[in-house]
Amino acid sequence: MADKAIRSKIPYIAFITSFGTYLEYYDFFAGSIFAGTIWPVLFFAPGNIVAATIASIGAYASTYFARPVGAYIFGHLGDKVGRKFNLMLTLLLLAIGSIGIALLPPYTSIGIVAIALLTIFRVIQGLGLGGEYGGGGALLMEFVGSNRRGLWSGVFQSSAAFGLLTASGGVLLASSILSGKAFLTFGWRVVYGVAVIAAIIGIILRFRMSESPMFLSLQQQRQIVKWPASTVLRKYWKLVILLAFSWLYIVGVNQLVVVFGNEYLSNLSFPISFVSLGVVIQGVVGVFITIFSGYISDRIGRKRTLIIGGILGVISLPLFFTMALTRSAVMVLLSEVLMGITTWWGLGVIIALYSENYPTNVRASGAGLSYQLGGFIAGIVLALILPLAILAGHGIIGSWPYVSMIGIIIAIISIISHLTLKETKDLKLA
Prior knowledge:
Layout: H1 4-7, H2 10-37, H3 39-42, H4 49-80, H5 83-102, H6 107-110, H7 112-141, H8 149-177, H9 180-193, H10 195-208, H11 213-220, H12 228-235, H13 237-246, H14 248-267, H15 272-300, H16 302-324, H17 329-342, H18 350-357, H19 363-392, H20 400-420
Helix pairs in contact: 2-4, 2-5, 2-7, 2-8, 2-9, 2-10, 2-14, 4-5, 4-7, 4-19, 5-7, 5-9, 5-10, 7-19, 8-9, 8-15, 8-18, 13-19, 13-20, 14-15, 14-16, 14-19, 14-20, 15-16, 15-17, 16-17, 16-20, 18-19, 19-20
């Protein structure tokens, strides 16, 4: 159990580490909204909206391919130099990627260069996001006692849902007060780029925060591993894969709902303001469900909590599309409430679970690589398999059975991994 002096720092550390993760996910989810609505129109050749949407989703998903690289680089730094140092660098990358996309000229001005730059800036963001998770989560968990790790893990992870909430809320506000042309021209850019200012503030706050006491102890005892990320891949590679699959249903199914679901609702003739309202509702529910699932994992265990989430993941997409096809605004908004439950349950467990499975000298690397490998697999689904589902369905509207099947398979894979996990909620971090 953490002593009194350390416990007093936990709320502040939780805020600072979650603040950075929130900013990462704010831009991440804003990008997911625009990838299915704005970017196909703005950054790709006109004339074939289906092809433009597929290409836009591919550019968006490029972030997933960069995230494991970011996890390796910044996981190494987090375990070698310190959690605090690399967390400032990850926010810097976020700022660079965000301002680049916010200022990017359209296809009509610079042609195919717009597509190339969009992908490059998304990759830069992916590197930052990849490094953010392992270092921030490890630092927080190393301050927290074992009986409350699930709860604080839920608080940390809820910043992702809060990022979804505020990103979609910003889109809703801007699209409501601006004309369609004004929003397409500059409104979305303001929403997307506002995180740059917050990132600068975050860098300053992180400069002032305390380093992990467990990492400082490793330094004093000269037990720092020379190549921590490489050690994880060599010594713990089976565990990395297993833990990646454990949260695959969350990142995979949730992103199918947020990215493809937004485009699906747009094709059903729902306006972007309504689509954004639905995502806001999902985000509000997601914040509370994430915290609650972390809290409940301190009671019933990480394993049982995740199995419940995997089962909910199986039913998520069929439920969403069935309700969306009624074309009823009430049913669509209700489906977003249900998605806030079914696709966010279990996320609150993840950083606690990962931290408990890796020793302190490789924790940032192990947690980051496990988490981002799951994201990488989800990226393959979005970039390669989802377009095939759209083609098989002869367009966006007809592809929902194929997309639902993708989500079901992802969730079943996660459940299988959950069944093989060892319960870790009572373990003391070492």
